[in-house]
Amino acid sequence: MHFKNSFLQTWIPHKPRYLAFMLGLIILLLAHALFDSAARGARLLDITFLIVFVTTLFAAWRQVWFIVAVVVLGVPMFGLQMLSNFFHAGLLEIISHVFGALFFSFLFVSILIDILKTSKVTMNTIYGAVSVYLLIGIAWTFLFGLVEHIHPGSISMPQTLEPFLVSKQQHFNVLMYFSFTSLTTLGFGDINPVVPIARTLSYLEAVIGQLYLTILVARLVGLHIATTQNH
Question: What are the structural domain ranges in the chain?
Answer without folding.
Answer: 16-230
